[in-house]
Amino acid sequence: MQTGDPILVTGVSGFVGSAVARALIARGERVRALVRASSARTNLEGLDCEVVVGDMTDRASMERALAGARQLYHVAADYRLWARDPGEILRANREGTRAVMEAALAQGTERVVYTSSVATLRAQGADGEAIGVYKQSKVVAERLVEQMVAERGLPAVIVNPSTPIGPRDVKPTPTGRILIEAATGRIPAFVDTGLNLVHVDDVAAGHLAAMDKGAVGERYILGGQNVSLRQMLGDIAKLSGRKPPTVNLPRAPLYPLAYAAEAVARITGKEPFVTVDALKMASHHMFFTSAKAERDLGYQARPYGQALADALAWFAQAGLLT
């Protein structure tokens, strides 16, 4: 039975947002799900929640959505590594975050969990500014939240998920696309890079733990296991009954392919599979630790192999592995 005032979750039609909503509903919370009018509703099917239509960049619609809600999980974001107009990503993530947090202050929301990303953190061996507009947009948005906490008393806790994988990746995300391509035998080689992979449901549980136990103004990495791309592709091959790729490609010869793919994408509007920014990011191992969240929030993540198996099973059921 759902009790108490509603809890607003943004981005419920998306991958992480739907997982957060499901976790809240599972523990009996009243969930109010914010979706855009144009958003697909696949991830809302079967969810016992109140659905409200709004746009995170529209402060007035956010104030209406937050009316009477005691808590807010701001999960919505434009998670693309490429866009024909890169400014779309920056505007959505910077101005959307600003509008949502201004609305939370105006409505007197008791507590906020803001979903940032490890994209705002420095990767192993990285230096200089964040690579690509998505990472840059998340850095700007996170700094904005921190400023509003310090200067205006915004009661926000920041969480930084690493790379979630698992069921209900309907779009799919950039990482989900890699899983699909690998499982269907379309990635015959790899580059020397790595990432931190985590089950999306563990990320969702970490959000709830941050709301319950996190300190306002603090940030917590919600990650899983550090894995090389070669290991990930090999494990996907085993689960898919295929031979793992064995060719280690240098990055430099791939740049002309990435430039060509982006040129085609500018014509078609379809996000390219390989981008220049992705190759630049691949020069670093995106390895992180969740030790702070484990210590302060009681956060735990299952072995990444379980997340990989769950993701591939869902993609197969959704007909995406044909």
Topology at a glance:
Blueprint: E1 3-10, H1 15-26, E2 29-35, E3 50-53, H2 59-66, E4 71-74, H3 86-107, E5 111-115, H4 132-152, E6 156-161, E7 163-165, H5 174-183, E8 189-190, E9 194-199, H6 200-213, E10 219-222, E11 225-228, H7 229-240, E12 247-248, H8 255-268, H9 276-281, E13 285-286, H10 291-297, H11 304-317
Parallel strand pairs: 1-2, 1-4, 2-3, 4-5, 5-6, 6-10, 7-9, 8-12, 9-13
Antiparallel strand pairs: 9-11
From N to C, what is the helix and strand string?
EHEEHEHEHEEHEEHEEHEHHEHH
Intertermini distance: 40 Å
- Indicate the low-confidence ranges by residue numbers: 123-127
Strand content: 15-25%
For the record, the CATH architecture of the domain at 3-165 and 199-223 and 288-302 stands as 3-Layer(aba) Sandwich
Helical content class:
40-55%
CATH topology of the domain at 3-165 and 199-223 and 288-302: Rossmann fold
The named CATH superfamily of the domain at 3-165 and 199-223 and 288-302: NAD(P)-binding Rossmann-like Domain
Q: What average pLDDT do the residues reach? A: 91
